[in-house]
UniProtKB/TrEMBL annotation:
Gene3D superfamilies: 6.10.250.660. This is DivIVA domain-containing protein. It comes from the Bacteria. InterPro entries: CHP03543, DivIVA_domain.
């Protein structure tokens, strides 16, 4: 039997092999729409984006699995978009995407240092200068089609800072950005 991903050395942590294999088996069934027997597992692009695996020594090499999950998320998002097109039509779909993009822009265009809620003086959050700089690029993407990809958004990394931006709120907005980007592909 072939191994779908490279594995880490036996002394290095990687993703739990059984969890990854089980998730991918279910994802394949859900994508092929043969999941009628397992009605409890409904897979969406959002669920793929938020999937996490336990770590184990000698597990699957995390960057390889993460890359596969990004491709899987894209495939489910494309299918979801196609279904929504059929149900709502192109105009309604794009109107919804424009509306969501407008809501995101309202947040991203807030003044520097005020785009997101602060984590609190004693809590660590994302460094506001890093996030604000990234948001400037996203505004350019939404305004003039700057060259930013879903991979850029998914892999954005920010320094930590005590009293920085609330990480959950920033992550939620970045997830919404990815949703809009996938919707208009």
């Amino acid at each position: 039997m072939s191994v779908p991903f490279p594995r880490t050395r036996s002394s290095i942590l990687g993703y739990d092999v059984n969890e990854v294999d089980d998730f991918l088996r279910k994802a394949r069934q859900a994508y092929d729409e043969r999941d009628a027997a397992d009605e409890h597992f409904v897979l969406t692009s959002d669920l793929v984006r938020h999937t996490a695996f336990s770590m184990q020594k000698g597990g699957y090499y995390a960057p390889a699995v993460d890359a596969a999950l990004e491709r899987l998320e894209d495939a489910f998002a494309l299918r979801e978009r196609d279904r929504a097109y059929q149900e709502a039509g192109d105009e309604a779909w794009y109107a919804n995407a424009r509306s969501r993009a407008g809501e995101i822009l309202l947040r991203l265009e807030r003044p520097e240092g005020q785009k997101f809620t602060k984590a609190g003086f004693l809590r660590v959050g994302y460094h506001p200068k890093d996030v604000d700089a990234f948001c400037t690029g996203l505004v350019e993407y939404f305004r003039s089609g700057a060259d930013i990809t879903t991979a850029d958004v998914r892999t954005a990394v920010f320094r930590s800072r005590r009293g920085g931006y609330d990480e959950a709120q920033v992550d939620a907005v970045l997830d919404a950005v990815v949703d809009v980007m996938l919707a208009v592909r």
